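Board notes (copied after class):
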Amino acid sequence: MAETTDTEEPASAPAPGGASEKKPDPPQRWVWANMPVGERETRLGELVLWVDWVIETYEVRSQIAKCWYRHPRILEQLTALYVGWARTYAGDPSKVGLRGEVDWIKEFYSFLPRLNSASCQSVHTDPPKVPLTDGEAFTQWADEPAAFLAEPPVHPAHALSHRMAKAAEAEAKARAARTEAGQQKG
């Protein structure tokens, strides 16, 4: 995810028993790979508390993998949800829209299908390692004169706007010709 830009501990889930403390500024961005090890451990502990609270509060035990912290994909998505939750519920109210809480809940439910792992129904199982990019094949492809690499850059929107301009120009000429033909008759 993103780097941490705050220095204080971020706001956490409500304390058991409803006790309320002054909460520090919510986190701005978290980039797990860019965090110092000590901070990573602290943030992960914070995220575990929040995920447990979310699972209990929204009754989604079967929809979030029990071993979510062992899956980078799920960890990143839960991190994004947590940071969004903290901004919505503990952040500056002037930066949250009137429907901020409702929007966060909608986003949470839209994420649920991606927060589980089919391979981990009862016990964690590492997903099979799949090669990302075949480096040798890519190098061979890039060394050949590939049309994709040799074509001049053209943004699709530019081509569309060019076609639209030509059509508008043709329509204007046709309109002018009709007008001129009407004036000659009269």
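Comment from the instructor: Helices lie at 37-58, 72-90, 100-111, 135-143, 147-150, 156-185. The CA atoms of residues 4 and 30 lie 4 Å apart.
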